[in-house]
Structures are given as structure tokens and as C-alpha cells.
Amino acid sequence: MAKNKKIIYLDYAATTPIDSKVLKEILPYLKQEYGNPSSIYNYGQKAQEAIDKARGNVGDFLNCSPSEIIFTGSATEANNLAIFGTVRAWQKRGKKPHIIISQIEHHAVLEPCKTLEKEGVEVSYLPVNKEGLISVSDLKGAIKENTVLVSIMYANNEIGTIQPIAEIGKLLKKFKILFHTDAVQAVNYLNCDVQKLGVDLFTISGHKIYGPKGIGALYVKKGTEILPIIYGGGQEEGIRSGTENVAGIVGLGAALVEVKLRQAEVKDLEKLRNELIDGILKNIPDVKLNGSQEHRLPNNTNFTVRGAEGESMVIALDGEGIAASTGSACSSRSLEPSHVLLALGLSKEEAHCSLRLTLGRYTTEDEINQVLKVLPSIVNRLRQISGIK
Ligand SMILES: *Cc1c(COP(=O)(O)O)cnc(C)c1O
């Protein structure tokens, strides 16, 4: 990265900087308020009260009872708990379970399902259309007599496509099937009323919403049969043992309060996002926007740039002090093309020539203009190297 230059951060889908108000609320629990919430003396009880308050914040945000919230060590863990926890509970009754997910789920949903598949659990992977949307009638057609769980992400982390969660919730009400959604990318921008959405399980993460890393939560609707995946001292209603990450929990609660207060900013973000999309499509030939125009997160852009390798664009942008991504942060260390882009129908080559720029709370017009200024020549140079003009 260029020296002495402020970085232009355009990778908010990978993680977000911590909000200063959130940080201020967390700090006491990393310093003087170090009591164990399970201890009965006053010092421990102060930590317990802080957890109770945060649980209340999460309950308010999701429109559910605080007792329906299980704090976890990450959204990855919350997804694992939702999937293994419900499937294990069903298996206890001696039945062979069937799960339905989409082909474009995050690895934190895909991998638990693949692991269960190896154990003999049936998994159906729903295809998506060119925009990344599943079809609700496909979903209906995939339901079997032994379907336990449907897990469809609220919004995709690579292409920003928003799935019709409320519509799926309504369909599944007619069957006795549990409905989980990984809502990690949705929380900043979309309605998260779990009653309106008709979900039984709902995953959120701290570090995607200007809160700390290493904290997640799972909403588990009252009455849902679920077994723990971590056993120990019985914290979190026995569903998630381990001494609570008090600072993380406080941070997650505080971050959700901020999300609610900042809803008015979403329109401005969308405007900046559209400027970036229009600018790139206009100034660089042979570029395609991946995903949906209409059903898209207000902060997401994802392009296929013919003849320019994704990794090379990211490295060149880094040289200009711009933080970008080829797709999901988790898979960027592997050279496998994105499973999400392949599911849209892109070729391996197209998937390798993709660039994701995701905006956030601190993105400015100047930053967008800077990207529009440097990206065309970067692409030109890379195309010349690859022999495509
Ligand atoms: C980031 C992300 C996760 C993983 O969240 P962690 O808290 O980092 O484990 C899961 N699902 C989606 C859609 C994500 O974007």
C-alpha cells in the first residue's frame, strides 16, 4: 500500500471498523468490569446485568423475547449450531433427516451440510437464477416427508442478492419444517423482524455491523428442538457452554442500537453505490454487473471484468491504497473460483475475472471518484498483459 495515504476501504462485506460509541461501551468490560457473570457476588452480577441488557437490545432488534437469543463465538458458530443442533435433535427420534439449502450459501452453512451429508443426511442444493435468486416453487418442489430444515441466506455476501425470506417463511408455515436464515449481511439494511419474516432460526454477527469480531448470535424460536454442539458449564440455557464473551456481547447489543439509529443513511449509501456501478460500466468496456439490480443490498457491487484477473485487480488496487476483494474473504486464499458466481452461470474464467467492492458507513464521494479514476487504467494494463485489448 502507498505510504502516508489514508486507505480507501471498500470491503465492508468482509468486515467493518468498530463504531466509536460501541467501542466506548465495550472498554469497561475489558478493564475494570472483569467479573464472571456466573459468580454470585456483586462484581459478577454487574457483568450479568450487562449481558441481560445486550440480550434485550438484540431481542428488541429482532422483535423476539430476549430468552430466545443464544450468544455464540461467531456467526459461523451460530450457523453450525442451527444446522447440527436441529438435525441432531431430529436424529434422536431415529429418523433420517433431509435439509434444503441454496447453492450460494456462505461456507459457514455449506460446510456443516456437506459434513452431515457424509454421515448420510440428505441435502438438496437449490439452484439460483442469473440474478442469484432461488425460486420459491423450486423450494416447494424439493420438500420431502422427512425435511427437517430449510436454510436460505437473507442476503448474499458476494453479490448482495436478497432472497424472499418472508415469502419462504409463509410457505414453510404450512409444513412443519424449521426455517433458518443466515442474516449476517442483511442486518445493516433490511427488516429483521423475525415474526414478520416467519423464521425459526436467525444468525447475526458482530463484526459485519460495526461491532467487535468473535461474537455472533442465534435466534432460536421458543419451542424449537435443538441440541448443543458445545458442552460444558451450561451457559446460554445449556445451548452454548463457555464463560460469556461479556465485552463482545455488550458490543453486539450496542452495535444493533446504532444500526437502528442510522437507517436514514441507507438511501445515501445506495446513491453512492449506484454512482460506482454507473461509473464503472460507463468507463470500462466489457464489464458486467453480477447479481440483481432490483433485489440487491444497498452497499454491494460485484463485476466481471473480461480479461482482468480478480486477484491482480485487487493487488493493483491495493497499490493505490484501495482495499477490495475478489469475492468472499474466506475463500480468497484459495484459487477455487467462487461457487456463488459459478451458480449464476458464469464460466470459471469469468468467475476468476471478478471484483467485489462493498461500501459502508464511512464511504465518501471522493473515495468513489478515486476508484473511478484509477480502475480503468489498472484494467487496461492487466488486459494488455493477458493479451486482451
Ligand atoms: C461474514 C459472514 C459469516 C461469518 O461470520 P463470522 O462472524 O465471521 O463467523 C457468515 N455468513 C455470512 C453471509 C457472512 O457474510
Description:
With 389 residues, the protein is α/β, with parallel strands linked by helices. The protein folds into two domains: 8-17 and 264-386, Aspartate Aminotransferase, domain 1 (Alpha-Beta Complex); 20-261, Type I PLP-dependent aspartate aminotransferase-like (Major domain) (Aspartate Aminotransferase, domain 2), CATH 3.40.640.10. Helices cover 40% and strands 13% of the residues. The strands form three sheets. Strands 2-8-7-6-5-3-4 form a seven-stranded mixed beta sheet, sandwiched between helices. It has a three-stranded antiparallel beta sheet with strand order 9-10-12. Strand 6, helix 7 and strand 7 (201-205) form a beta-alpha-beta unit. Helix 1 runs antiparallel to helix 8 (246-261). The longest helix has 21 residues, at 42-62. The site of pyridoxal-5'-phosphate has 13 residues, from helix 3.
CATH topology of the largest domain: Aspartate Aminotransferase, domain 2
Helix content: 40-55%
Shape: globular
Poorly predicted residue ranges: none
Mean pLDDT over the residues:
95
H/E series: EHHEHEHEHEHEHEEHHEEHEHHEH
Query: How large is the radius of gyration?
Result: 22 Å
Biggest beta-sheet profile: 7 strands, mixed
Number of strands: 12
Count, helices: 13
Overall number of structural domains: 2
N-C termini distance: 27 Å
